[in-house]
Amino acid sequence: MPSASKEIKSMPENLAIKIENLSISYKINVESKKTLKNAIMRASKGERVRTRTVEAVKGLDLEIPHGSVVGIVGANGAGKSTLMRAIAGILPPTAGKISVNGRISTLLALGVGFNKSLSGRDNIILGGLAAGMSKAEIEGQTEAIADFADLPEGFIDMPVRTYSNGMYSRVAFAVAVNMTPDILLLDEALSAGDAAFKEKSFNRMRQLCDEARTILIVSHALSSINELCNHAIWMHKGKMLASGKPEEITEQYLKFLNVGELPSSYEDL
Amino acid sequence: MIEGANKFQVFEPHSSTLPPLRPYFREFWRRREFSTELSKFSDKAEYLESKLGKVWLVLNPLFLAVVYFLLVTVIQGGRGQSGGFTTLCHILIGLFTFYFAQNTILLGAHSITSGGSLILNQAFPRALLPLSSAISAAKQFLPTIPIYVLIVVIGKLFFNDSSLPGLTISYVVLPLLFLLLVVTSFGLSLLFATMNVYFRDTTKLLTYIMRIWLYASPVLWQPDMLNGWHRVILYLNPLGPILSANSRIWIDGLLPTLSQIIACLFWALFSFVLGAYFFISRERDFAVRI
Ligand SMILES: Nc1ncnc2c1ncn2[C@@H]1O[C@H](COP(=O)(O)OP(=O)(O)O)[C@@H](O)[C@H]1O
Ligand SMILES: [Mg+2]
After folding, report:
1. B84-111 vs B144-158: helix axis angle to the nearest 10?
2. Quick check: is B93 in a domain?
3. Which residue of B has its CA nearest to A87?
4. B14 HSE (CA, 13 A, CB side)
5. CATH T-level assignment (fold) for domain A14-28+52-266
């Protein structure tokens, strides 16, 4: 687990997240499965494990003030999810430093900690506990969360395995936004549900951000990023390619998607 | 509001040394409710699948104990006749106790690798997952004690068997012994849970180890069948002293010997420190390796 040390108070008051020169890499076993048997076989032949290092995030610097809504765009494999997990304290940095000021709620993958044979209500409790709420707190909010998810009559007490995809993601989303987090991390979670639910979730996010809470959104829905965010960054192969007004960033990114080339000014990266 | 959660956090590269332990254990303790509830909900999910599940949990060790008893009696060629009922009770209480350790270790060893999406998407002290397994194992174990007592009472009333002790003062040591058993098994489960992240066949291997471990433990045989230096076997086994002391209390109605208590304390401390060291120093790596 990450630790809170004392020096951090050096972080400027107005920042919710400060990322300095962050690099994160994954180590992957190239060949055989990770078993004791294989390890012993290799050792007896005097071989070493061949691993490959994937640098998912490279030398990233970012400062996010309280109350901002930041959109993150980029192709698949650009390192967006890795960055989100690092901010949540799940993945340790390989180099660099992340300082976070505030309680974090994550919706990094749909159905986090969801047990399919339990009811939606049980899953709400489990989800809240996993995120660090106490049982009393989460029980006080279960109704509000169930209301927000607004499932068809009676479904909240049915096993989650009977849910449709949309219903499933609505519950997950409702849990994440109702924890009143200081910092909300959403990884490709915006597409949850139909138009009415989308409207409701946008309203809820605007409300959170009016309360000076910070939201990071990874999404491929560029129009949603334009609508919700006041800042956007574009990640490409682990690096931050551009950072600025959402409209400008999404336009550049869209152009890149259509043309398939990076804007000439980025070529040296 | 998520009360008491760390507000300021810094994430930096780590070596494989320990993180500051005090914040770790504070956070671990603050979020213990997650373990108890997770255990409750995973048990609930399991019983939803099979209604007989709960009954089976008690019946299974009971049937096994009877099978083992018959086996042991046959092997001994009837020599154990005099204390037949005592032997059965020794096997029963030993098996119930051993199964608690086995369940804690096996469930705990699986808990990290099977908690994949939870580990990839939430930050929490990972030791809460094996703790939840230990809680589930305890909830299986505790109901077996009244059943054991019931069997002893039936033996005393209906078969006039007077070889087993009635209520004795030595029973007050049992909660302490259980605590040491919990600490020992939880420590070992942390060790194997860590190993299983690096070597995915650990749990498979562990099922064989547990079987051998059972035969090497004073469950199917009595601790005083060993003489002289053979008694070392009892003390080299992390569960040996606990199981011997356990049988001494339940079957002989005597307090554990001093050497038993010292050995129990040693193994509890050793397993816990070793397991916790490996687990806590590696757990920041789990998300990368799941
Ligand atoms: N668990 C993992 N183990 C190994 N490599 C990974 C893992 N997760 C992601 N990667 C690699 O890291 C890079 C970034 O992935 P990711 O952060 O998921 O990108 P994005 O979310 O932007 O699509 C990719 O090259 C991917 O292959
Ligand atoms: Mg992703």
Report:
1. 170
2. yes
3. B11
4. 21
5. Rossmann fold (3.40.50)
Q: Classify the C-alpha dihedral B221-B226-B230-B236 as positive or negative.
A: positive
DSSP class of A67: T
Of A67-76, A199-208, A243-252, B87-96, minimum mean pLDDT range: A199-208
The alpha carbon of A93 is separated from its chain's Cα centroid by a whole number of angstroms, namely 16
Residues of A in contact with B53 (CB under 8 A): none
- Is the CB of residue B141 less than 8 Å from the CB of residue B60? no
pTM above 0.90, yes or no: no
Q: For the sheet with A214-218, list strands across it.
A: A104-107, A183-187, A214-218, A69-73, A231-236, A239-244
Q: Which residues pair with B134 in a beta bridge?
A: none
Top pLDDT among B162 and B21 is at B21
CB atoms inside a 10 Å sphere around CB B278? 18
**Burial letters for B72-82: b for 16+ Cβ neighbours within 10 Å, e otherwise?**
bbeeeeeebee
Domain ranges of chain A: 14-28+52-266
Report the DSSP beta bridge partners of residue A215.
A69, A184
Q: Taking CB atoms and an 8 Å limit, are B9 and A89 in contact across chains?
A: yes
User: Which DSSP helix (H) or strand (E) runs through A198?
Assistant: helix A195-210
* Residue B1 belongs to some domain of the structure: no
What number is the ipTM of this complex?
0.83
B130 in a domain, yes or no?
Answer: yes
Confirm whether B4 is domain-assigned. Answer: no
**Cβ B24 vs Cβ A3: under 8 Å:** yes
pLDDT in tens, B25-77: 998 999 999 999 999 988 887 776 676 777 777 788 888 888 888 887 777 76
Structural domain including B162 reads 21-40+50-289
Residue contact A2–B205, C-beta within 8 A: no
The model's pLDDT over B169-193, given as tens digits with 9 standing for 90+, comes to 888 899 999 999 999 999 999 999 9
Q: Give me the number of domains chain B comprises.
A: 1
Q: How far, in Å, is the centroid of ligand 2 from the Cα of A231?
A: 19
Which ligand 1 atom sits closest to the C-alpha of A188? 21
